[in-house]
Specification:
The protein is mainly alpha-helical and 274 residues long. It contains eleven helices and three strands, in the order ααβααββααααααα. It is globular.
Length: 274
């Protein structure tokens, strides 16, 4: 560590020689001060959050959610298991098993970040409808921004309302035409399902949703289901776009599971697909 002339003069004036700045005792002392300040900051934030949560519970008559059980510190065993089931494409089954074991509403504390998971209809109705304005998106904005940018899926408050008002007319178009397009994509979906063998429907349902959504939003479908009949789907523009979107969504899913630590997942491949 090397002091600047101004810093050296200030430290010398107050009895600290420049040579002392590199002394092990001074470095340990500086580290201890920085660690103490960081610890106090985290503690103050947790106290504020606990008070806010307690006030919310009292105001809405909420009970204390059951804690999610884990074996390793910071729930590292759950983090490792989560990445394993995601790689095996069994995430949905894993989540169902957790809810069956823990209950419809529970509190998780993973990597020091707390969150509440729920599948109870009353809670979902409150979050998504009746009490919508009292809830925030948390870290969703920076987590999803590389792919979705600043739009309705990452906005809150007035910006979100503005985006919603702009999109609303798209869903009041000619319903007969919309039905015709959905029917056409449904027929392609059925044609893509082989008979007499196992098939991964998740990929096909993703393409079906992708095709119908692009039609609703842009008036033109990406017709990704049609490219399924081609030997090399990546050779078409629609196929390449659909695959890049799928890979990007997979990254977003894994980033979202890390909460405030979303930045640990990303890299060159993620940015290239986005």
């Amino acid at each position: 560590m090397q002091a600047t002339p101004m810093a050296s003069t200030w430290l010398t004036t107050y009895g600290v020689q420049e040579a002392q700045l590199t002394h092990p005792t001074f470095l340990i002392f500086s580290f201890a001060i920085a660690s103490t300040i960081l610890f106090l900051g985290i503690t103050i934030q947790r106290v504020k959050r606990n008070r806010a949560d307690l006030g919310f519970q009292r105001a809405h008559g909420c009970g204390i959610p059951r804690p999610l059980q884990y074996k390793w510190p910071f729930a590292l065993d759950l983090v490792i298991e989560a990445f394993r089931v995601i790689a095996e494409k069994k995430a949905l089954q894993w989540f169902v098993e957790i809810f069956e074991r823990t209950g419809p509403t529970f509190e998780q504390n993973v990597l020091g970040v707390k969150g509440i998971d729920t599948v109870e209809p009353d809670n979902l109705e409150s979050i998504l409808s009746s009490q919508f304005t009292k809830y925030g998106l948390g870290a969703r904005g920076p987590t999803f921004a590389p792919l979705l940018g600043d739009g309705i899926f990452t906005q809150e408050g007035a910006p979100w309302k503005h985006s919603r008002d702009m999109l609303r007319p798209l869903f009041s178009l000619n319903r007969a035409n919309i039905f015709k397009q959905v029917e056409e994509h449904t027929e392609y979906l059925v044609k893509c399902i082989p008979t007499g063998q196992f098939v991964d429907l998740q990929t096909l349902f993703f393409r079906f949703t992708f095709d119908t959504t692009t039609f609703l939003l842009f008036g033109k479908s990406m017709v990704s289901l049609q490219t399924t009949f081609k030997r090399d789907e990546s050779s078409t523009g629609e196929g390449r776009f659909s695959e890049a979107f799928r890979i990007s969504q997979d990254f977003l899913f894994r980033r979202g599971r890390l909460g405030d630590l979303y930045w640990l997942i990303g890299g060159k491949e993620f940015r290239r697909q986005c």
